[in-house]
Amino acid sequence: MTTYIPAWQDGTLKPVEKLEVHKLGLRHKAVSVFVFYQGQLLIQQRAMSKYHSPGLWANTCCTHPEWDEDDLACAHRRLEDELGMRNMTLVSAGELEYRAHVGNDLIEHEVVQTFVAVCEHEPSISPNPDEVMAHKWVDPITLERLIATAPDQHTEWLKIYFREHFDALFAKGFKEAVT
Asked: Catalytic site residues?
C-alpha cells in the first residue's frame, strides 16, 4: 500500500508518496505527541521494521497526517495505532519546523504540530509490535543524560526537540519532576 502525505512542492501542499518525501527532503506535515505522567515523559523505541530510525528512542508518538486529515485527529489515531492509548486529552503545544538527516540517505524536513497530554492517572499502554519495540517513562534529568551519553540511540527529532524546544514541549509535563 502506498502512503501519501501532505508535502510542499513549488509552494503548494500536495499529496506525495511518503518515501519520496524523505528521499527528496521535501518540507512536509507531521504530528508529534508527548504524554506525561507524574513528571515523566513516555518515550518509545521504534520497531526494527521502520524504514528509518529503527530501534531508536523517540517521543511518545510521531507521524504524518493523511491527506486532508485534521492534526488532532491524526494524533489520536496514531496514539491508538502505536501504543493502544485512547481518550487522551491532548493540548496543542504549537507548531515547529526542523530538518534532519535520519539515515539511509533520508531527510526529515517537518512542519510539526505538537500536542501534550499531562495525565492524572497512569494511562493504559498496549504497544503495537509493528510500530514499537519498547517504551518507558523518563524524567527530564534522566532523558538529558540518556541523550548526552548515547545520542546514537535517540532519534534526531527527539534530540532537536529536547535541545531547541524544551520549554514549549517538556516544561509543563516535567514540572512535577523538578519542583
From this structure: 62, 110
